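WARN retry 2 of 3 for item q-0093 after timeout on previous attempt; input resubmitted unchanged.
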Amino acid sequence: METIDRRLAKIVPSQRQFVFQQTEFYAFIHFTVNTFTGKEWGDGKEKPEIFYPQALNAEQWVNAVKSAGMKGLILTCKHHDGFCLWPSQYTAHSVAASPYREGRGDIVQEVAEACRKGRIKFGVYLSPWDRNHPSYGTGQAYNDYFVNQLTELLTGYGEVFAVWFDGACGEGANGKRQAYDWNRYYQVIRKLQPNACINVCGPDIRWCGNEGGNTRESEWSVVPRRARDTEKIAENSQQGDNIEFRCRKMRASDRDLGSRAMLEGEKELIWYPAEVNTSIRPGWFYHQEEDGQVKSLEELFDIYLRSVGGNASFLLNIPPDKNGLIHPNDEARLKELGTLIQSAFSHNLLGQGKAAVDCWKPGHGIQSAFSDSYESWFQTPEHKASCEITINFPQTTPVTFVVLKEYILDSQRIERFSIWNEGHELLYRGTTVGYKKIVSLPQKPQVRTLRICIEDSRVYPTLAFLGIY
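OK item q-0093 returned
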């Protein structure tokens, strides 16, 4: 009979998931009529005439997010208010009815082109809840409308790396909620943008369960198949606050989604990595009164370490102001963050040391993990679920970060590891590694010999990369 470990170790990412996880850190841009009304959730009754960002500069957006080290940008092409940032032929409630560029503007086009020019990825958010369109809540007619708009976005703006759906589902004008045809939406995306990941209410990337940048101690990418449905069932208040997602007693915010004990009785398992999302400000849309409430550099870097460095991707929202620009306070903070990330991980100390390991599979020694390329990887013999890696430095060296990356094309395996100074001082004890684990050692220990002990794994452990900083 197959053991639980061998069963779990068979679950691996799709190619699109693997490519997406390498994106690591990317931006959310929330921008619509809410920017001008001061609301977070519009009601669909806003007049298009209020939408007039007179100095909009999509290249400024892209340059700002790139300065933080982000590799992609997801634009809210249509939020719950139903206002479209592109001139959709299926509704009059769009930028074409606004004074922006005298009604001839297409902000989706501008942002997509700016992303291509800046060599970052472009993604789209399209709210399934439309509080403006009269067909919402009628069933088939609205699903046809939604698919038509989705098709416009996926065929008119080049390659898309992500399609981001949330589970908001309020009542329409007829007092009924819309039954979203998710499978149809997915089929359209797979046909038109086969390399795009479908996030949150989708089969590729999972919501972490909160919007505050909170993370789990143990983040697993192998989870029950039923985890895909947690965001499709939403109970929300009229104001859109206190949203709770429930599905068969499983929540996206559950602390344990992938331990051996959690998965023991599950019949269907999938690769479903987590995404951590939060905003650089208290709100998701721009509010002038929040200009002085931009998250601190320390808080943003901490979220980065816990998300990108905790087997998740990091989606950080940056809301443009009424002029259509990233505010100078946000812009400055993004640049500071990028500078800090770059300086923290620019010089791998491993090149100064001499690494050894107590066991390895022929052709996959520890030197195979020195290059962060996935062209080679470290692996123990298949009967060994643990190993000890030793790095000796020629002189005492201060260490602040240790970076571990599993070779996830062979699944996620490491269950428990520890890091030691010499043979006696415990510096860190951890659980999962996954795509990337950044171990922060704030005490900056002076180290001559660093030991990394992989203590328990599912079948055998792998490392695609090892970095000491």
